[in-house]
Design goal:
With about 240 residues, the chain is of the alpha+beta class. The protein is about 60% helix and about 10% strand. It folds into 2 domains: about 60 residues; about 170 residues, Glutaredoxin (3-Layer(aba) Sandwich). It is built from 8 helices and 5 strands, in the order αββαβαααααββα. It has a 5-stranded mixed sheet, with helices on both faces.
Length: about 240
Amino acid sequence: MSKGDKKRAQAKQVVREQLARERRRTVTLWTTVGVVAVLVIAGLIGWGVAAGQEKATAGKLTVPSTAVDDGTAFARGTGPVQIDVYEDFLCPNCRRVEAATGPAITQLVDAGKVTVRYHPIAILDRLSSTQYSTRAAGAVAAAAQSGKFFEYHEALFAQQPPEGGPGLDDAKLIEIGRSVGLTDQAFADAIENRTYTAWATKVTDTASSRGITATPTVLVAGKPLERPTPEALTAAVGAAAA
């Protein structure tokens, strides 16, 4: 073989090796693309299933077995005078009224003078980025179902988040529950699965149909208490009893 032929043969060998390397790179590339595509599709399917399950849970009306007043409130006491409290857990005025009148209400309950019905409504969802009012109302329902409504109600107001923010996340709502003895998994599951979201909507719609347009709204024997102070509350209860 002449020197020229030898060089041409070497050049052809180099070209063949380059083509082989290109083919190997192409196969590797498309294999990788295929694997990534499969993983992406699997992830989308998994997300879709989870989202669908959460949507289905949130859309199903589950009424706490402990609820009264057509399943829209939770009661304390068994006295003859009825007090109805409509409140939103994101409402700063609700927290102030609860702090001011709470001890007086407890005294009236302990004295056997009143039955208090708490209606957790959600009219301030627009003031949080996570529909906190609805989620908090649902969390209270879960607490009531586990026998700790009032304890959780008090603890939730004590840690009320500011308006305009995200509100408390699910983990914090569950943590507050643990602080009042709600350690059962059913409570945590109800919060994470949005078990009582549709219920919170029903309670809010029912309140609206009754003419409740603001929180807090306190009714004593069906009559609005214009200034919900301890003195006004006690006087209204006395007048209703008389």
